[in-house]
Amino acid sequence: MIKSKRLLKQKKISHGFFNKKGGKSKGIYKSLNCGLGSNDKRNNVKKNLKIVKKKISKKSRDIFLLNQVHSNKIVFIKNFSKLKKEKIEADAIITNQEKSPIGVLTADCVPILLHDNKKNFIAAIHAGWRGAFKGIINKVISFMIMKGSETKSITAAIGPCIKKKSYNVKEDFKKRFIKKDKKNKKFFTTKKKVIYFDLPNFVKSQLKSNKITNIDLINIDTFDEKNNFFSARRSLKLKHADYGRNISIIMIN
């Protein structure tokens, strides 16, 4: 489990970014696969989620996860006990409830954990390029401000994700971003006719544009096998039929 140094200073919360280590899954899902949407054995995934929960808190609710759809949809939860059992389709969760861990699943996309230490709100965001492009980060911060948060009170941690050196993209991908905003050109580099995209710094720029200054960017590349994270892009390269998911969670104590 990896922690954000900045979030560690916030004593009202617990959090963690988990890699593949320490779970029950086998084969291509070895070992801490937390993706119920994967083709892994469901019972193993449930065991893995219990392992993660215990590492964060032994006296909390089960981890709340979304049915992530690469959108800019967000959900605010003020009463976990009234939620229906089926997963909500969205890519960000905001809550102010204690002992209720919220999480997002990633396998190269960016997990973002937020905490407002004045209003005591937390948020977990799944920011793939689509969600980030569609403005999910803006929506989460705008909602928190509407609820009384101040940007100077918000700490943001950008978790392990695919880094620019591992993220090659096509020309039409680059054009889409530059068409939206010419300033986005700075997030692309071309080497030997191959275009690379800097997703984590694109995400960081969106946090900054929302006047969030207390930002921790954890510099770990999920694509790099030595870091021991699940990676959709690496699995595709290895011609695996599926891939596991890393979990990132945050909870108000």
Q: TL;DR?
A:
The protein has one domain: CNF1/YfiH-like putative cysteine hydrolases, CATH 3.60.140. The chain is of the alpha+beta class and 253 residues long.
Structural features, described:
The protein is of the alpha+beta class and 253 residues long. Helix content is 25%, strand content 23%. It has 7 helices and 12 strands. The protein has helices at 5-8, 42-56, 129-134, 136-146, 171-180, 199-209, 232-237, and strands spanning 13-17, 74-77, 92-95, 102-106, 110-116, 121-127, 154-158, 168-169, 188-191, 194-197, 214-217, 246-252. The strands form 3 sheets. A 6-stranded mixed sheet has the order 2-3-6-5-7-11. β9 and β10 form a beta hairpin. The mean pLDDT is 97.
Main attributes of the structure:
single chain; 253 residues; alpha+beta; CNF1/YfiH-like putative cysteine hydrolases; six-stranded mixed sheet; three-stranded antiparallel sheet; 7 helices; 12 strands; 25% helix; globular
